[in-house]
From TrEMBL:
Enzyme class at the top of the EC tree: transferase
Keywords: ATP-binding, Kinase, Nucleotide-binding, Transferase
Record SUPFAM superfamilies: P-loop containing nucleoside triphosphate hydrolases
UniProt name for this protein: (d)CMP kinase
Keyword Nucleotide-binding: yes
Catalytic reaction list: dCMP + ATP = dCDP + ADP; CMP + ATP = CDP + ADP
InterPro entries with a match to the protein in the record: Cytidylate_kinase_dom, P-loop_NTPase
EC number: 2.7.4.25
Native species: Streptomyces crystallinus
């Protein structure tokens, strides 16, 4: 299949990255996790003022989406590497001490605009790509081949995240209910003709992957 673009949205720890990785491996897609940009900027905010991050985002931060994902470091999610001022910070962006910065970056509309421009430049480079994160269906890939909204009960999402990070010290564990933004995005995706909603609460990852591939075949046919 060529010209395959997929967007995956959904609340925290619903399995977006897991599904995207499976799809990327199965279909040979590039993989962009937009949450990584937000987390990288939360890290960068420790070192640079937000004004500089906004205006020099493109030169400060370099994403390296991988065509064939490799999970490194024993289960901690590291979808692709990211450089900040030339330094590989992939390992450093998953820490609860950055949660306050993460909130500031997420709520800064000027920052969000610059992040979107950065992501648009990245996706333009790839004919086949899966992008993950809040609002990617609406803002980044509105013409994707398939838009997936992935859900799971909050208690299950929290448990999965705990298990994922159990052995890795102080990592960000916050898993709240679906936010107003999550629900807004879900409703926007539901209104799209080529959308697929998957509840993974009782479905293991391979079942979710199969459902997504089936959905893609239906819409790509
Ligand atoms: N269908 C599933 N069944 C059971 N466990 C799953 C399933 N999907 C993902 N997981 C596990 O749940 C955890 C969270 O998954 P993942 O990191 O893919 O979620 P996410 O939505 O990308 O999270 P975030 O909101 O931080 O971006 C991981 O440990 C993953 O292995
Ligand atoms: N397109 C996006 C991606 C991420 N965010 C926010 C949401 C979270 O607070 C944070 C980290 O995302 P995660 O790694 O958990 O997917 O970034 C957003 O607002 N828009």
């Amino acid at each position: 299949m060529s010209g395959v673009t997929l967007s995956i949205d959904g609340p925290t720890a619903s399995g977006k990255t897991t599904l995207a990785t499976g799809l990327a491996e199965e279909l040979g897609l590039a993989f962009l996790d937009t949450g990584v940009t937000f987390r990288s900027l939360a890290y960068a905010l420790e070192h640079e003022p937000v004004e500089k991050l906004r205006t020099e985002l493109g030169s400060l931060l370099v994403h390296q989406p991988e065509i064939h994902h490799r999970r490194r470091g024993g289960g901690i999610r590291q979808p692709h590497s990211v450089l900040f001022k030339g330094e590989d910070i992939t390992q450093k962006i998953w820490h609860s001490s950055l949660d306050g910065n993460l909130k500031s970056i997420s709520q800064d509309q000027a920052c969000r605009r610059e992040i979107l421009l950065l992501h648009q430049r990245i996706v333009e480079k790839y004919e086949n790509i899966v992008a993950v994160g809040r609002d990617v269906a609406v803002t980044l890939l509105p013409r994707a081949s398939l838009h997936i909204y992935l859900t799971a009960d909050q208690a299950i999402r929290r448990e999965r995240r705990r298990a994922q990070y159990r052995d890795f010290g102080d990592r960000s564990l916050a898993v709240g209910p679906a936010t107003a933004r999550d629900l807004e995005n879900r409703d926007a995706i539901r209104a799209m003709p080529n959308a697929l909603e998957i509840d993974s609460t009782y479905s293991p990852a391979p079942v979710v992957l199969t459902a997504a591939l089936r959905g893609l075949r239906r819409y790509a046919a």
